[in-house]
């Protein structure tokens, strides 16, 4: 059996006519950069995510970049983030000649560990570096929110901003002390990616910045068009971070389906859990499953399962075996950022962040999407069981 890691065509076939009609209407309008489609999407995403403003930009990476630019990050400033994430999180910091400061992850959620963050902040407070520290970027990895109450409390204590990297977690809910909040709505800004593989994916690149701060939103809107306030008059040095109307139109067609697709992902995840429990692999400690830590707290969207990531012994050998069996898998991520060559100048070494390093050795993402069938899931788990039965 051949099982792709992600089947975008299966989703497309269910909305094909709506997509074509939307694209035709945009072609008729001849409005391709920003414009009414982008403005409408911004309003709809802001409402969906529970924020006052949403600013459409060219990618999730550029959403991070323009957020930090609007917050006036300067060379030499320092921002704390996780070493176990996609490159863009730390890359956006470094592009502004600021310094990423890494903090280890919680082994259960793979998100920034608040206890380790507290220790790191205490350590920095005692040094001259404290004045350079400006903010924290927690990542809601794989579709589950980081522990934002603790992170926000620490940020307030140390007078730091928080920008949420919600690239993988649109719609994910968090049981905040202030009520149920959605990913990207709790910090001074939050970012979303619309890369085609995301739960809400465009047909190319796209991103969004979320914020409740009107002045910050206005700065970002200016920065995304080279710092232009009115045509050919520039008040800041920005960049070309516009969201295309065609991508916005595609996303507007998809958005009404998102909650249904998220629920189907949770159904797929629950079926995986049952199949793995029945397989005996968990009991034998060959495999451990992702933990939805907010599942029993009255939340509908406690996890969006952008990825279903297991930990496995002999991970690389298992991945090769599954490939032979026709099952496509991915590793998110095989090397933590503090060990990447481009960040060698930061001075980190192997052993500095043991949980991130252990995760990089053990994690394996299995296929998960709304159209994945029970029969396909049975086959995947049977293949994993066969691998471990061979010793």
Give the gist of this structure.
This protein is an alpha/beta fold and 391 residues long. The chain has helices spanning 8-29, 36-49, 60-70, 88-95, 114-125, 148-157, 214-223, 245-254, 258-279, 315-324, 354-362, 374-389, and strands at 53-57, 78-81, 99-102, 133-137, 161-165, 173-176, 179-182, 189-193, 207-211, 228-230, 233-234, 287-288, 308-312, 363-366.
Map the helices and strands.
Blueprint lengths: L7 H22 L6 H14 L3 E5 L2 H11 L7 E4 L6 H8 L3 E4 L11 H12 L7 E5 L10 H10 L3 E5 L7 E4 L2 E4 L6 E5 L13 E5 L2 H10 L4 E3 L2 E2 L10 H10 L3 H22 L7 E2 L19 E5 L2 H10 L29 H9 E4 L7 H16 L2
Parallel strand pairs: 2-3, 2-4, 4-5, 5-8
Antiparallel strand pairs: 1-9, 6-7, 8-9, 10-11, 12-13, 13-14
Task: Give the key terms.
14 strands; 391 residues; 2 domains; 39% helix; three-stranded antiparallel β-sheet; Aspartate Aminotransferase, domain 2; Aspartate Aminotransferase, domain 1; 12 helices; seven-stranded mixed β-sheet; alpha/beta
What does this structure look like?
The chain has 391 residues and is of the alpha/beta class. The chain has helices at 8-29, 36-49, 60-70, 88-95, 114-125, 148-157, 214-223, 245-254, 258-279, 315-324, 354-362, 374-389, and strands at 53-57, 78-81, 99-102, 133-137, 161-165, 173-176, 179-182, 189-193, 207-211, 228-230, 233-234, 287-288, 308-312, 363-366. It folds into two domains: 8-256, Type I PLP-dependent aspartate aminotransferase-like (Major domain) (Aspartate Aminotransferase, domain 2, 3-Layer(aba) Sandwich), CATH 3.40.640; 257-389, Aspartate Aminotransferase, domain 1 (Alpha-Beta Complex). The strands form four sheets. A seven-stranded mixed sheet has the order 1-9-8-5-4-2-3, with helices on both faces. The chain is globular. The chain is 39% helix and 15% strand. 45% of the residues are buried.
């Amino acid at each position: 059996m051949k099982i792709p890691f992600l089947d975008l065509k299966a989703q497309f076939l269910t909305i094909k006519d709506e997509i074509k009609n939307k694209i035709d209407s945009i072609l008729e309008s001849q409005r391709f950069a920003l414009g009414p489609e982008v403005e409408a999407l911004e309003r709809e995403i802001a409402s969906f995510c529970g924020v006052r403003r949403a600013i459409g930009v060219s990618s999730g990476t550029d959403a991070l970049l323009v957020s930090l630019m609007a917050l006036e990050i300067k060379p030499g400033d320092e921002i704390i983030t996780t070493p176990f994430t996609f490159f863009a999180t730390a890359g956006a910091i470094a592009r502004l000649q600021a310094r990423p400061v890494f903090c280890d992850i919680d082994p259960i959620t793979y998100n920034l560990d608040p206890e380790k963050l507290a220790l790191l902040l205490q350590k920095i407070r005692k040094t001259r570096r404290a004045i350079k520290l400006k903010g924290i970027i927690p990542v809601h990895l794989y579709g589950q929110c980081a522990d934002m109450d603790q992170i926000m409390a620490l940020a307030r204590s140390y007078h730091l901003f928080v920008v949420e990297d919600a690239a993988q977690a649109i719609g994910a809910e968090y049981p905040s002390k202030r009520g149920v909040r959605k990913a990207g709505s709790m910090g001074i800004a939050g970012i979303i990616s619309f890369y085609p593989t995301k739960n809400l994916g465009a047909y190319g690149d796209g991103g969004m910045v979320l914020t409740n701060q009107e002045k910050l939103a206005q700065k970002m809107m200016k920065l995304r068009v080279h710092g232009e306030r009115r045509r050919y008059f520039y008040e800041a040095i920005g960049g070309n971070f516009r969201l295309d109307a065609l991508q916005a139109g595609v996303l507007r067609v998809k958005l009404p389906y998102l909650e249904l697709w998220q629920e189907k992902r949770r159904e797929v995840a629950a079926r995986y859990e049952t199949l793995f429990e029945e397989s005996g692999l968990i009991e034998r400690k060959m495999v451990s499953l992702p933990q939805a830590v907010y599942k029993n707290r009255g939340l509908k969207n406690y996890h969006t399962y952008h990825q279903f990531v297991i930990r496995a012994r002999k991970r690389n050998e298992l991945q090769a075996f599954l490939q032979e069996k026709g099952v496509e898998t991915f590793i998110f991520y095989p090397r933590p950022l503090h060990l990447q060559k481009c960040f060698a100048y930061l001075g980190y070494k192997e052993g500095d962040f043991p949980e991130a390093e252990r995760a990089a050795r053990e994690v394996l993402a299995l296929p998960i999407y709304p159209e994945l069938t029970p029969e396909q899931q049975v086959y995947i788990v049977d293949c994993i069981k066969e691998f471990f039965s061979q010793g």
